[in-house]
Design a protein that fits this description.
about 160 residues; alpha/beta; Rossmann fold; four-stranded parallel sheet; 4 strands; about 45% helix; globular
């Protein structure tokens, strides 16, 4: 991943979206086959989160954990698997209303959604390779992600308290 945001944006704009989606379809099919037909989840950050949500909208995954990305109301209407969203307190790419609208649309569609907005963070807070990295919040978000995916994909619930 490039350190320069302008270079990252140029790479993103040059991405063959159809090819990326096809690769995700292949990956989900491969993982499901290797899991003996068991549940499959997706996990993504920023642009990767957008791709993971697009995959969830196809109905081919059983859970989605997303960092600082969201979809629109049309996407939300097609997503029926549980969704975990990790949001930055301040996000230079999308206003809070964008995320709020997506969450409202997911809930209106009857989709289970868990949202964490991490205080004192900005977009990319979980990326240790950038200056915006917030280690405490990133660690807490990762723990929540692991728990969410474990619970939704294996049915395992922690014991004790």
């Amino acid at each position: 991943m490039p350190d320069d945001p302008a270079q990252a944006e140029a790479l993103m704009e040059g991405l063959d979206q159809a090819a990326a989606r096809a690769r995700l379809d292949e990956a989900v099919a491969t993982v499901r086959a290797r899991a003996g037909g068991g549940p499959v989840g997706v996990l993504g950050w920023s642009m990767g989160g957008s791709f993971a949500l697009a995959q969830a909208a196809t109905g081919t995954v059983d859970a989605a954990a997303i960092y600082y990305a969201a979809g629109d109301e049309d996407d939300a209407a097609r997503i029926h698997c549980p969704v975990l969203l990790h949001l930055a307190e301040a996000d230079e790419f999308d206003p809070p209303e964008f995320y709020e609208g997506f969450v409202t649309a997911l809930r209106s569609a009857g989709t289970e959604v868990e949202v964490h907005t991490w205080p004192g963070t900005e977009h990319s807070f979980a990326n240790r390779d950038v200056a915006l990295y917030a280690p405490t919040q990133a660690e807490q978000a990762w723990s929540a992600t692991v728990e969410f995916l474990r619970d939704r994909l294996t049915g395992a619930r922690p014991t004790g308290g």
